[in-house]
């Protein structure tokens, strides 16, 4: 057995820091652990990694509260079926204190030591950041595919002989979003069992195959099927991305990459029509799929080919180490410190059942998920239909999309949201204001497009309208998501990720159904009256949902929201 396999727990540098448990009789310490303790006493500050860079001492590798909030609020897809109270990071206990060999009563616990070469946080800095860049780039590329063929809907109908089946062509675009909503239920739990590297690599290969299949399809139904599969497989990289970032960077160091990751999600989503306009003009809409598949394949090779390859999940790596040590030492009591005591079947069942149980048993969860779904569906509707509605203004379509994207991004920028007993009504007032901004902006956008006749003098109307829609919808999503974090943040941590995953499901359904419905309404009623009808329907649904949410805010034994300040950035 190599020294690397023996080094499974860190040792305190001094007797004062070690505590009372260091005075155990030698007979009670297993040989494999005794070798580890004797080989790692002393100062590690002079040690270096393989690339010559000094090893950074991390007294508390557990990510802090700010990072945890970013993980659960900005990236709600991260739900791996493991209870939060058992999903502690390697190297610290539930209180955030460093775990050492001296503080462990059970000598059968397998853990890292400070300079463990198998610990992903001890990778060279360049290797970690290349891996993080690949995760962020994959997220951007996958999200870019949501609406990138929206400008090519007329060409798709012509190629497949769809005639006047405008709604079916619109669903071929938005069904990708349905796959994005269902993917996280599968991939986050599987990545918790087998590790994100293996699961993401396989899903990326399947995503490339599904995307290339979109190039060779000969019917609209086949295109819809391939687009759905591409959405399901592609969202694996998006759903597991935040976990990879937290596995590689400790504490506040992961805050900036997580924010860049979230920004890539937003920019990729709103940037899809830009790619479709610039690259998919004329009969070249199939080229978009070749480009997307090639980029994803290249980024996948970066993840699996040396020198940047390697598993990042501490839970999976420690389980593999414990299994290897049990086989080599014959001690069947050895177990990983991150072992939650759940079988693979339990983790998978929790990740599937938890969101649906909470969605159908809690009116609060259903209401908040509905609000997020309405706002997200409105964004998908604008991105998918803008080229059809503004077809008499082709020169200004990029400008319309630009201002809508600016609104979506700036809706996420408020730095502090004070949430407590005195400000709870203020929070929901913000949701109401966001809904009014969305509806009024949508009505202004539709009527000016219809009566303006393509005149440059009134182009400011659709610009302000789309800016208002982007700001309002993003404002609603941010406010409701943070409120959801507080409402379902129970001590056991089980309901919070389930509620977030439930909102992802509803978000995917609304995002898939709104675009074809909007195309149907616009085609029958026109841009002006159609936008009025759609805005009125969304406002009524949102108001009814808001009332139901307020009436049932006592769910799960939380009569009021706990006072706190949520610092987003």
UniProtKB/TrEMBL annotation:
Taxonomic placement: Eukaryota, Fungi, Dikarya, Ascomycota, Pezizomycotina
Membrane topology value: Multi-pass membrane protein
Gene Ontology cellular-component terms listed: membrane
Organism: Parachaetomium inaequale
InterPro entries: MFS (IPR011701), MFS_dom (IPR020846), MFS_trans_sf (IPR036259)
Transmembrane segments: 129-156, 168-187, 193-216, 228-252, 258-280, 395-414, 426-447, 459-478, 499-522, 528-548
Domain Major facilitator superfamily (MFS) profile: 131-569
Keywords assigned by UniProt, alphabetized: Membrane, Transmembrane, Transmembrane helix
The keyword Lipid metabolism is annotated on this UniProt entry: no
Name of the featured protein: Major facilitator superfamily domain-containing protein
